[in-house]
Specification:
By secondary structure, the chain is of the alpha+beta class. It folds into three domains: 274 residues, BirA Bifunctional Protein, domain 2 (2-Layer Sandwich); 107 residues, Rossmann fold (3-Layer(aba) Sandwich), CATH 3.40.50; 73 residues, Translation Initiation Factor IF3.
Length: 486
Amino acid sequence: MAEKNDKKITPRSEDFAAWYNEIIARAELADYSPVRGCIVFRPDGFAIWEHLRDELDRRIKKTGARNAYFPVFIPLSFLQKEAQHVEGFAPEVAVVTHGGGKELEEKLVVRPTSETIINHMFAQWIHSHRDLPLMVNQWCNVVRWEMRTRPFLRTAEFLWQEGHTAHATREEAEQETLTMLEVYRSFVEDFLAVPLIYGRKSAAERFPGADDTYTIESLMPDGRALQCGTSHYLGQNFAKAFEIRFLDDNNQLQFPHQTSWGVSTRLLGAIIMSHGDDQGLRLPPAVASTQIVIVPIWRKPEEAEKVLPVARELREKLENAGLRARLDDRDGVTPGFKFNDWEMRGVPLRIEIGPRDIAANEVVTARRDIPGKEGKGKASLSDIATHVRTLLDEIQKNLYRQARAAMEANTHQLASYDALKSRMAGEGGGGFVDLYWCGNPACETKIREETRATCRAIPLNQSVASGPCVVCGSESKERAYFAKAY
């Protein structure tokens, strides 16, 4: 174990992809499964997902949505009812052809998303305007047969949350779409400390079958964008395909307006990449399964007999204050090894306590967000819980500030197509580019094919003067963010 943890990881600046994969393995977040493109969540990795899931679930329920669960198997014919939907997912669909030793009369799709099965059920449940709005959410796994996979970011099977709602009017549905966009934005920025841009997707980047797609996007330290969540206004497309009708106030049959929205375990990838450094993970305290690790220090057995009881009392005091604390009382392992081990695992705050500290009624604190001596301090044992809570709050805010500063430093306003091509040249990411774009799909296609950058978001409610499209020069009333993306 010591040999594994003493080995340095690949620096981010040298090979970002290798650094990312090594962090996941060394911090014991996940491991590869025997099935290509699938991963096994290890307890530390799944604990992050649980904290993330529980907090987001609470926020979703405040909007009025309730949790349900729908089958993982969907009749293939369901997917074929909505033309854009099936076209968008066809390359990624896994299909079950046999069951119970026999060929199935109808092939079954392993859900890539649940719009079709949920809308089939909505057709059974929605009959009157009194049945609306109908708002459900489910936490589940989905399968998309990806060719190139990377842990958390893109795997054949992944965990996610997907919400689906039906409303009597377009206005209500559009408002729900924007409400969930804001839920996601505030959750990711405030709870995960990951800075974002957000807005509307271009037509080429919309969810298959949606009238409009809205997105939250973050920029990773390698200059590539990561889509962290989406909220879709589906219009009446699925309602018509699945014959969902309701009687309105005037006793007239109408099709409801619908939304869907979701985030996935790629948020774990966002946390790792946004905050990690060459020493390992750096977890925001809000989402860390262990917020504080206590490392007792002694040289002689008689010192251990004095230090360990105080360290245990300290852990209990912190836990009673509602904090997630852990005591590392492993024997036969040096304090230096423990420090490195917990830094790799990203624990936000370390508390060191030895005989001299006990005599002075204090402890040494070491913040994960600030390296070296600058991140160290002392705290009185008398009011340790209050002091630690303040430190954790500062760490949470500082991680966001650091990530925001990095994103802003790699966001560039460009005025020409040559500048765009130069910025996106090479294999690496080029950061966010903020530019005028006329909205013409031909210009977007040219950018994508010649630079590999795609339209990540068109900011909402823009109040900018019109300017020339960087591609064709025609008048543009909006600016858009483009970037290479994961």
